[in-house]
Design brief:
about 600 residues, alpha+beta, six-stranded antiparallel β-sheet, five-stranded antiparallel β-sheet, 15 helices, about 20% strand, membrane, transmembrane helix, kinase
């Protein structure tokens, strides 16, 4: 009987340990999937933010009067002025190089004009970013630099003149800092384009390798275009092990060999699209150690429970057999068995207490990790300049359309020799061009890198500048905005660009709070309190919860579903740097009022 029991127990224990291992493996992959998805979304958001920030540069420069003047006059003085302007702009925006091509594709001015690798005088007519910009107005093209031999994304935009194309503004964006940030993580990351070729990667040896093998014809065509230089376009050392589903989401387990590894290891592969591009971000999470740990933990937990139970069953069976043989021997055996059970129970109790403590510690660690991942997963669009630029472009379209209409009317009146109406139409055209100039001046001022210098700043002008930048969004939303100014302007000690940045953040937050309100309203007020000036922005939105209010200026703490929790932190740092402070209070549990307190300029 004992032999049969032992055989059955052995089979049961083997099956149970296998099931426990499978359960532990599944739980391990579920945890890795959650961690990988958050990291992949964050990496994709950071990459998209970097792209959006630099996409606005050629858009702004394509309308710059200095660019048009250099293209039309070819005056050496104006070209050198543009060289210096590009040089300062590249340094401030961390762009690799900014340069201007004439209509024939030859470089007229460049930010690297003083270097030995200057682009000035070189022809890039053969580059697709030139021909695409000429045909479509703008283009984005990732390639290896023909001079620098460094990879990067070329963002181009056409400069139009009265007679047609004047030139092309090009900004080259390199991703060294993004790749360095990814490289500090234990999770390799890389980005592929539509054909599966690796463009950006935390592992430099994988650059310009492919997800799947390319045909000989496609590889030869790519090399002939010089897009990736003489890269061999080999296939990545990543092989799919299996497709699986963990936590209800598709995932893929792959075997990959890193350059510094002696052998291949298993990774959980996650993919995330980089929105506004055709790129795909791939992230590999090391799985071997985590899976092995969770499998061992599950099996150990099961063994600590099942082995004593099976042992106790064996002892009871043995006790019954011995009891039927001899009562005296059974009594002695019972006493001895009870002693052994007591000892084993004591050991089991200690083991269970130790296991409960370890489980509690692990649970607390997982809770902290979960909280961190939730904070990181709230990362949202950081490229506010790109959003503002899109709105301003919409604002400019309206006066441009009106200018065209007035010009057509003026031509008709001129044919009739109606000079009075011609003059009226020309006056309206001049007024509309002034309006466009006001809008672009506001955008150019806001996009310029602040020097940090503090001086006299008009409070009313700063408020009007912020409202101008947000004009498109304000008109698209039903929220009303009322400004309350005292008699006379109030001049504060601040920096105009940085103060506008703070006001833009506060007004955007107020617009977000009143987005779904049918009677939403925002009040902007100027008050004087001794030697200080108070700029208040209040809204009648749903209000800020108390637990969020207590950590309002703590990084990565936000009540917005898609917020990152950095806007108010940056605004608070700016105001403190200007020698002021930001106060916030709730009014009647619904209204929220932010007050920027600055020194009055004497």
């Amino acid at each position: 009987m004992l032999i049969l029991y032992a055989a059955v127990s052995g089979v049961a224990l083997t099956v149970a340990l296998w099931l426990a291992g499978d359960y532990g493996r599944t739980r391990a992959y579920e945890g890795l999937k959650t961690r990988a998805r958050s990291a992949a979304d964050l990496n994709a958001t950071v990459l998209r933010s970097e792209l959006e920030k630099h996409r606005s540069i050629p858009f702004i420069l394509s309308t710059d009067p200095d660019v048009e003047a250099a293209l039309t006059s070819r005056d050496p003085g104006k070209v050198e002025l543009l060289d210096r302007k590009f040089e300062g702009l590249a340094e401030g925006t961390r762009a690799s190089v900014i340069y201007l091509l004439d209509a024939d594709g030859r470089t007229l001015a460049a930010s690297n004009w003083k270097t030995t690798t200057s682009f000035v005088g070189n022809s890039y007519r053969f580059r697709p970013y030139y021909s695409l910009a000429v045909d479509k107005g703008s283009a984005e093209y990732f390639a290896l630099g023909t001079v620098s031999r460094r990879p990067g994304l070329y963002i181009s935009r056409r400069v139009d003149g009265p007679a047609g194309v004047l030139g092309i503004v090009v900004v080259k964006l390199e991703f060294d800092q993004v790749e360095a940030g990814w490289g500090r993580s234990d999770m390799p990351s890389y980005v592929t384009e539509e054909r599966g070729i690796v463009l950006i990667t935390s592992n430099q040896n994988w650059r310009f390798m492919t997800e799947t093998p390319l045909s000989a014809g496609d590889a030869a065509s790519i090399r002939a275009s010089l897009q990736f230089g003489e890269a061999p376009l080999r296939t990545l050392p990543i092989n799919k092990v299996r497709d699986d589903t963990f936590g209800g989401h598709p995932a893929q387990v792959v075997a990959a060999r890193l350059p510094d590894a002696k052998q291949s290891g298993n990774f959980l592969k996650i993919e995330a699209p980089v929105r506004t591009t055709g790129w795909q971000l791939h992230l590999l999470v090391p799985a071997a150690d985590a899976v092995a740990g969770r499998v061992s933990e599950a099996r150990l937990s099961l063994g600590l429970v099942l082995v004593p139970i099976l042992g106790l069953g064996a002892v009871l069976l043995y006790r019954r057999e011995r009891t039927s043989a001899l009562a005296a021997e059974a009594a002695a055996a019972r006493i001895e068995l009870e002693h052994h059970v007591e000892v084993r129970t004591h050991d089991l109790r200690q083991a269970n207490e130790r296991l409960e403590w370890e489980i509690g510690e692990r649970q607390r660690t997982e809770n902290k990790l979960h909280t961190l991942m939730e904070d990181l997963s709230q990362a949202n669009r950081l490229a506010s300049l790109g959003q503002i630029t899109a709105g301003v472009a919409h604002e400019i379209n309206q006066p441009v359309a009106a200018i065209r209409a007035y010009a057509d009317n003026a031509r008709a009146f001129l044919d009739r020799d109606d000079k009075m109406h011609v003059q009226d139409n020309l006056a309206m055209i001049a007024s509309l061009t002034d309006r466009i100039g006001t809008i672009t001046d506001g955008l150019r001022s806001f996009s310029r890198k602040g020097t940090g210098e503090v001086g006299p700043v008009s409070s009313m002008e700063a408020i009007e500048g912020a409202l101008l930048l947000l004009g498109s969004r304000i008109r698209a939303q039903s929220t009303s905005i009322e400004c309350h100014y005292p008699i006379g302007d109030l001049v504060v000690s601040a920096n105009r660009t940085r103060l506008e940045q703070v006001l833009v953040n506060l007004v955007q937050n107020a617009l977000d709070a009143t987005r779904d309100s049918v009677d939403g309203s925002i009040h902007i007020r100027l008050d004087v309190a001794g030697d200080e000036v108070e700029l208040s922005v209040s809204d009648n939105g749903p209000g800020i919860p108390q637990h969020v209010l207590n950590t309002l200026f703590t990084p990565f703490r936000t009540a917005k579903a898609n917020g990152l929790g950095l806007g108010l932190v940056i605004s608070n740092d700016i105001v403190i740097d200007l020698g002021g402070r930001i106060d916030v209070k709730r009014i009647q549990e619904r209204e929220t009022c932010f007050t920027v307190v600055l020194r009055r300029y004497q």
